[in-house]
Amino acid sequence: MPTSITGKRVAFLATDGVEEVEYTEPRKAVENAGGTAELISIKDGAIQAVNHLDKAGTYPVDRLVKDAHVADYDALVLPGGVANPDFLRADPAAVRFVGDFVATGKPVAAICHGPWTLVEAGVVDGRTLTSWPSLRTDVTNAGATWVDEQVHVDGSLVTSRKPDDLPAFCDQLLAQVAA
Known about the structure:
It holds the Pfam family DJ-1_PfpI. The protein is α/β, with parallel strands linked by helices. The chain has a single domain, classed as Class I glutamine amidotransferase (GATase) domain (Rossmann fold), CATH 3.40.50. It is 32% helix and 27% strand. The chain has a seven-stranded mixed β-sheet, sandwiched between helices. A three-stranded mixed β-sheet has the order 2-4-5. A two-stranded parallel ribbon has the order 9-10. Helix 1 (20-32) packs across helix 6 (166-178). It is globular, with a radius of gyration of 14 Å.
């Protein structure tokens, strides 16, 4: 039987440069499992997704991160893309939201370059996670252990390396939200 997360709300924190499939596939998984997904961003209007470095679709923003409250959500997803997490980690409200979310112990799932925001929030020390391989030095310099795995779960933290890992990433995200 598929995992059900009916009644659960999942925040997706992203901005321009988000890797489209790393936003759309987990969002579809959440919605197909009965959950509600909300796109939170550092800018109003819509965000520009990419397919690697090429422009892809645009997606409407539901709420600005400065107006978002961790208590309103059951989980947080941090999609990757090279530019998206770099913009997010430079925004104090986004970094604070991620740090506050991790502190609650609620599920946080980050894929590809998404863990950069976790590093910036100072929440990976002593944790084990995976990411796009080029983040390995950043992750280890922040005090975490980096592993090369399709998906890694460390408590409430779910991480994956790349778009090819999305099926395992989405399964673990739903399992964490349902738990």
